[in-house]
């Protein structure tokens, strides 16, 4: 089922509270996108989910199991993969080493042929990675590194995929390719996807539900169709 439920209170940095209170949920095969202008709190919300910023109260549940006390590496072992902003990979490692390292990092028992199957999935979604298997990640373009970062997350066969601004800094063509892949991941993997994004058009092309944040608070929530049709709020909070 992969039902992912999150509740946060007073998330931020030291004495600065960015997210006073926020709750959301997503199920397998669904993509929830957090939208809003710069400074709205999207990135802080996701960082609070994985426990890398201060938070007064954090509730994270997956199919009823309480994961609230787990750090980011513990969440990964439980099936929650986090892809932070900035296309972060191991720059001095090859594409193959990045992917293999992610597969081995969770230290979970693997099934025969599992690694090969996950490599094949990564190459099907992002063919350029197979072409550059022996290339150092740090010598690749920003778009290629972003694809590698997402492929690394998929190597743990996540039940939840959390993405922070995956389209940031990418060309329109790469954005289109990336979101086409995200749509396929959502449709075929069965994992729940939670994404912070500023590119409204790209996000709603694959999202099912939206949360629009404004200064850390929910200004608008609903299905993609509801957000698209609310012209007043789209203009006020998204500038569209």
From TrEMBL:
<comment type="similarity">
    <text>Belongs to the ABC transporter superfamily.</text>
</comment>
<dbReference type="Pfam" id="PF00005">
    <property type="entry name" value="ABC_tran"/>
</dbReference>
<dbReference type="InterPro" id="IPR003439">
    <property type="entry name" value="ABC_transporter-like_ATP-bd"/>
</dbReference>
<dbReference type="InterPro" id="IPR052156">
    <property type="entry name" value="BCAA_Transport_ATP-bd_LivF"/>
</dbReference>
<keyword id="KW-0813">Transport</keyword>
<dbReference type="InterPro" id="IPR003593">
    <property type="entry name" value="AAA+_ATPase"/>
</dbReference>
<dbReference type="GO" id="GO:0015658">
    <property type="term" value="F:branched-chain amino acid transmembrane transporter activity"/>
</dbReference>
<dbReference type="GO" id="GO:0005524">
    <property type="term" value="F:ATP binding"/>
</dbReference>
<keyword id="KW-0029">Amino-acid transport</keyword>
<dbReference type="InterPro" id="IPR017871">
    <property type="entry name" value="ABC_transporter-like_CS"/>
</dbReference>
<dbReference type="InterPro" id="IPR027417">
    <property type="entry name" value="P-loop_NTPase"/>
</dbReference>
<keyword id="KW-0067">ATP-binding</keyword>
<keyword id="KW-0547">Nucleotide-binding</keyword>
<dbReference type="GO" id="GO:0016887">
    <property type="term" value="F:ATP hydrolysis activity"/>
</dbReference>
<dbReference type="GO" id="GO:0015807">
    <property type="term" value="P:L-amino acid transport"/>
</dbReference>
<protein>
    <submittedName>
        <fullName>ABC transporter ATP-binding protein</fullName>
    </submittedName>
</protein>
<feature type="domain" description="ABC transporter">
    <location>
        <begin position="1"/>
        <end position="240"/>
    </location>
</feature>
């Amino acid at each position: 089922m992969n039902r992912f439920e999150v509740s946060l209170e007073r998330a931020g940095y030291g004495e600065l509270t960015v997210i006073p209170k926020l709750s959301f949920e997503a199920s397998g095969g669904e993509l929830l996108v957090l939208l809003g202008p710069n400074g709205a709190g999207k990135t802080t919300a996701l960082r609070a989910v994985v426990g890398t910023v201060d938070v007064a109260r954090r509730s994270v549940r997956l199919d009823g199991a309480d994961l609230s006390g787990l750090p980011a590496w513990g969440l990964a072992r439980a099936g929650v993969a986090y892809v932070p902003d900035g296309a972060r990979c191991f720059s001095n490692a090859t594409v193959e080493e990045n992917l293999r390292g992610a597969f081995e990092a969770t230290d979970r028992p693997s099934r025969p042929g599992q690694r090969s199957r996950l490599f094949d999935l990564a190459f099907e979604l992002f063919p350029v990675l197979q072409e550059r298997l022996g290339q150092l990640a740090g010598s690749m373009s920003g778009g290629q590194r972003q694809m590698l970062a997402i492929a690394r997350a998929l190597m743990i066969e996540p039940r939840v995929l959390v993405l922070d601004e995956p389209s940031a800094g990418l060309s329109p063509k790469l954005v289109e390719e990336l979101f086409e892949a995200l749509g396929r991941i959502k449709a075929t993997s069965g994992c729940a996807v939670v994404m912070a994004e500023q590119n409204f058009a790209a996000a709603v092309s694959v999202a099912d539900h939206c949360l629009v944040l404004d200064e850390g608070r929910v200004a608008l929530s609903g299905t993609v169709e509801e957000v698209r049709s609310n012209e007043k709020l789209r203009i006020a909070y998204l500038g569209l």
